[in-house]
Design a protein that fits this description.
10 helices; 10 strands; five-stranded mixed beta sheet; 56% helix; Alpha-Beta Plaits; flat; alpha+beta
Length: 406
Amino acid sequence: MGKNERGTANKDVRFINIILLISLISVLILPLYVIYFLTPAFNDFLLDDTEKRLIQVAERMAASLEDKGAIGYQSITPHFIHRLEDIRKSIALTKVKIFAVDSTIVYSTDPKDIGTKSNKSFFPEVVASGYPRSYIATKEVSGGSPLSNQHQIIETYVPIINGKNYDVVGVFEIYYDITSTNKALDQLTQRVYFVLLVIVLVLLSAVLLSVSRARANMRKREFAELEIRRQKELLEHQHYELAEMHEQAQALSLHDHLTSLGNRRLLEIHFDRAFALAHRYGKELGLIMLDVDHFKAYNDKNGHQAGDQALVSLATIIRKQLRETDLAFRYGGEEFLLLLPEIDMESGLQVAEKLRMAVANDTDVTISMGVTAYRPGATIDGMIKEADEALYKAKQQGRNRVVSAE
């Protein structure tokens, strides 16, 4: 087996080892996912759902109160107690308390609580905000062994709201036993965990089996002459495709070979994108078209090589004068087009004048420029035409100047 074949075999081994590692990590992560994410999510759902139900129960009990003012001992009538007991038995409430706004218990299904005050630090917040408050507590229920007496209870504090002025006139505290529900939830969680564990183990077994077979095949695999020829033909074909792609890339070159500025194809790409932003979001967009003054006469006098160097020097000055976000393109011959995102007409004229002065000071040529800017209803072709017409006016007015399209 040659070096290429051994390298391929080693890659296959590494890939298989990675698959094994991922499978083992999945088996280890699964219990953590169940413990730290799935189970708390179930508990939160249980607490939220139970709280909503208990709020509805509290609203039903509040409707039975005859006195709609501040809750006190006088509010607890035999009719209300009878109604409350019916509701309590129908949904198996463990305990119900009614508080006055000063946290005094004016009624409880456990008579020994009556007259005492709430020791919960959040009670004033419930009264002040008018929002319910729930939490899960573990409480001991009489009868049976100490272990079996531990019950999980949802305690929900529900404000009693006066329907006229929406003041809090009292508070219900409702106890609801979720021990059996929690046990069922734990059983469900364990089943989910077991099913997921079985699935992972099956997949892991399948991976191990595949690894075993793959390693056996790699030990037996030999490359024949036919495979070598096929690979050689494939490489020759790929080489041909790469050569074609290289020729296409050269044909689609996006920069001018003389000045290294963008060409017209790149201009179309960037102009479409900048114009779409201006049109969709109302952004400013400036456009400058410039032309070297008397460039044909300059070429005739100094030669085409000097003319090319003048264009290169002009391109260098343009790059220095523009911002990083501005774009410059050779539009054709001695014409250039500058695309200025986030630039309005006034700022565009300032950029153009600054560039004109720099060219006049640093080179032996001058330039004329036409400036326009995006406005609602404009088009790409329309903006180029406006800049071209402004450039024409600059030449008519004596050249070496800046003219706006407005």
